[in-house]
Specification:
Blueprint lengths: L1 H28 L3 E5 L9 H9 L5 E7 L3 H5 L8 E6 L14 H11 L3 H8 L17 H15 L3 E6 L19 H12 L4 E6 L29 E3 L7 H4 L5 E4 L4 H7 L4 E3 L4 H4 L10 H8 L11 H13 L5 E2 L19 H9 L4 H9 L16
Parallel strand pairs: 1-2, 4-5, 4-7, 5-6, 7-8
Antiparallel strand pairs: 2-3, 3-9
């Protein structure tokens, strides 16, 4: 461990020196420089963004984030090879946390442009909530899950309400900073949820993320979502099993979603279930019309059902259009060329796809040029506006 940390510190220091030197040389010789990193929020890969946020310029000295998009979400791990790619100039868009999601202003224009097809697109996208990400190939529901369903039904039968807080893989938040307007961290959020419902008519379900048990994603975590909980789990709270329920099962079990950040907010939107969002980047990543409380008191009133959670009236259509945007080959461009893993499972040895390289040489595949133009502001993402860069 000490050797690994020392190596990490050495690489981080070296990266900082390279950035500082490049900045000085670039200004002196009037050179443009861009820095591409794949893992935006771990050391040393995060340094280009943070350095460029402070000293950079979107035209002359900028950080670029690379991503596979959300291919593994849509394919549900049916392939190990990534065939999509997206690049974004994060110095031009410091408000965003990731290149993987549409910018809110772009999504709004995209939604308006496709509003007439919203019903058709909703019908196409509804199946995403029926993917068995949690239960997998289980044939029968666990007895503990059946007991939880009976307890939920009894709670609702006597007039109580049910909210569900959806956990995340703790080490996989991918944010430049934690927290939001109502909570300092995910740990603060989930413990506040438990305290808030205590003694109320709200039954709080806590659903851990199924990927905590998927080592292609979580890669043998040393901390789980349950480890964040310090409050006592009383009669108002049920901690669900990872494999008990899929998203479509939750439709008949809950009245309100409680989301720190995550695509769950879109799936619940498709299902017409209102959500309250807590993380700073949640309404930026998923601008579909859920509620984002600005104070802890406001958050508490929603969670105790003292105030109705009124979301966008067309939230189902907005959620469907968000997924439609994410699937679009005009957003995450078709890009293979070499064996990039779609998960955290390494592919070794790496190899090239000869036919893709040939298509690049003959001009049949222009994706790399398109990606470069997007970084330079010369080509817009869907719903975006072209911003020609200086020469």
């Amino acid at each position: 461990m000490q050797n690994s940390l020392l190596q990490l510190l050495t690489w981080t220091e070296a990266t900082g020196r390279v950035l500082q030197h490049a900045h000085q040389v670039g200004r002196k010789h009037k050179l443009r420089a861009g820095f591409v990193s794949l893992f935006g929020y771990r050391l040393p890969d995060c340094l280009p963004r943070f350095y460029c946020d402070k000293f950079g310029d979107p035209e002359r000295f900028f950080a670029v984030q690379a991503a596979n998009g959300y291919q593994n979400y849509f394919t549900n791990f049916s392939t190990n090879i990534s065939e999509r790619f997206v690049l974004r100039n994060m110095t031009r868009h410091p408000e965003a946390r990731s290149a993987s999601f549409p910018l809110p202003q772009n999504f709004e224009r995209y939604f308006k442009a496709h509003r007439a097809q919203a019903a058709e697109i909703l019908a196409q996208q509804e199946a995403v909530t029926k993917v068995r990400r949690s239960t997998g190939d289980q044939k029968a529901r666990a007895p503990e899950a059946e007991e939880a369903m009976a307890r939920i039904a009894a709670w609702r039968a006597r007039g109580g309400k049910v909210a569900c807080a959806f956990g995340k893989v703790v080490c996989d938040s991918g944010v430049p900073f934690d927290g939001g307007p109502t909570h300092a961290s995910m740990k603060d959020w989930i413990n506040h949820c438990i305290r808030t419902v205590r003694g109320s008519d709200t039954l709080l379900l806590i659903k851990p993320h199924p990927h905590e048990l998927n080592n292609q994603i979580a890669t043998f975590p040393t901390e789980f979502f349950s480890d964040l909980i310090e409050e006592e789990i009383g009669e108002n709270v049920i901690f669900l099993g990872h494999r008990w329920f899929d998203m479509h099962d939750m439709a008949g079990l809950m009245d309100l979603g409680v989301i720190y950040n995550g695509t769950t907010s879109v799936e619940l939107g498709i299902m017409g279930i209102p959500c309250i969002l807590a993380g700073h980047f949640a309404p930026i990543d998923y601008p579909i019309g859920h509620i984002a409380p600005q104070t802890r008191a406001e958050f508490e009133t929603y969670l105790r059902f003292e105030k109705p959670a009124i979301v966008a009236p067309d939230i189902r259509e907005r959620a469907a259009l968000w997924l439609h945007y994410m699937r679009s080959p005009d957003f995450t461009l078709p890009y293979r060329f070499h064996a990039r893993p779609v998960t955290n499972k390494k592919i070794y040895p790496p190899y090239w796809f000869g036919e893709d390289l040939k298509a690049l040489q003959t001009g049949e595949n222009a994706t790399p040029s398109r990606l470069a133009r997007r970084v330079l502001g010369q080509e817009a993402e869907p719903g975006g506006q072209r911003m020609p860069s200086s020469t």
